[in-house]
Amino acid sequence: MSETVRRTAAELAEALAAGDVTSTDLTEAHLDRIEAVDGAVHAFLHVDRDGALAQAAESDARRSRGEARGVLDGVPIAVKDVLTTRGLPTTCGSRILEGWVPPYDATVVTRLRDAGLPILGKTNMDEFAMGSSTEHSAYGPTRNPWDLDRIPGGSGGGSAAAVAAFEAPLAIGTDTGGSIRQPGAVTGTVGVKPTYGGVSRYGLVALANSLDQAGPVTRTVLDAAMLHDVIGGHDPRDSTSIQQEWPSFTEAARAGAAGDMTGVRVGVITELAGDGWQRGVMARFDESVELLVRAGAEVVEVSCPSFVHALATYYLILPAEASSNLAKFDAMRYGLRVVPEGDPSAEEVMRATRDAGFGDEVKRRIILGTYALSSGYYDAYYGQAQKIRTLISRDFDAAFAQVDVLVSPTAPTTAFRLGEKLDDPMAMYLNDLATIPANLAGVPGISIPNGLAEEDGLPSGFQVLAPALADDRVYRVGAALEALHTAAWGGPLLDKAPELAGAATPEGSR
Ligand code: GLN
Fold first, then answer.
1. Is a pLDDT exceeding 60 seen at residue 287?
2. Ligand 1 centroid vs 156 CA: distance in angstroms?
3. Quick check: pTM over 0.90?
């Protein structure tokens, strides 16, 4: 593996600024790495070699004129296939959008282009972002670079695996119930779900509008902060976008990296631990809490009693919103059209197309959502779920009156084996136990690598949650814990991951 691809985005940005490398070098190195290992990992659905190299050449030309557009100008990135990209296919991991090439860019993508980041390609995902393993992709699963027989988390397993396998220094994910943070946890990468409304949803193909949020997928907290500074901020095209000035997250991460937690009040969430949580995941979590204490944090236990209902609440609200969002895939407007024999009516074309175009999990959720919203059941299910959602927000309010941040393990277990939970939707849903409350309340959260569980040697994640709008806190505390970890482990966790050399090509790594 070339040393270039092992460097963080912040390091690559520095090398570019110093004139030690060109964006073309960096972009080529990552494209070569993709070629070498993606046959085995399958993090990408589309690789845009020509486009990325053309963008890199433009970046190099700008830089040589002294006109770099920002620190990340020239640093390549991968984008989850749920964000529209002009001229590049966008499938959302679904057959129903196979071959669809959007005529416009999502705002997040526009901001990446404006800041000069070459786009390497689009990453694999569970169909319409429904899942925790990326096995629900219509184009085949992504594999976890730590163990190719295991899942990389989901729904953004492609983005997390691309970053963990050094195929991209940066990626964009989306998090509706944990799809940035849980893949981060099980691949040993960093993932951030920003405050709801902090990053534009324009051009993000909606799973559940009131929960979806795009965010950074990286190898370090500083890289995530730098990327958030690029993609975040008000967008008049998204009516839920927050209109305010945000602080520099890069500065927050740099401030945290000193590792000093003096005076920071940390709440450990009582409900997000206990039975059903993997022993090694809990052991690593307890050690990290101990590190925070030694660094000066005041740690208390905080109860959020309504969190035990978060999963049930989410699986009413999400399918309700999703069933309505997915109604637009009607064989008329986008992508696939299946025309049955004879002289079919429009309704028959729709039915045949949706039958062939949607996978089982998508159909399951459409049925659930349609049921929960139907007139006789609306109050009993959807209405009740909205009330519990309010109680969950109140739990957060009460907790944040006592502490600055809340913490928990990001996911209850390490990466499971491919196929292990595919036939058991409930077991799959339980992966998001700890991540879902933040989406229901709109608060920001980060997952950072938290060491390897003793029993299986696989990565676990540490989650930090902050009040809405206080995203800077997740960067400050995340960077502090990352610095303490790096000192304790003698380097980044991903140094312990297998090389994947020659996993896909006989001639080995490049
Ligand atoms: N795994 C969760 C689900 O299946 C979260 C999905 C997401 O965040 N996009 O709904």
1. yes
2. 9
3. yes
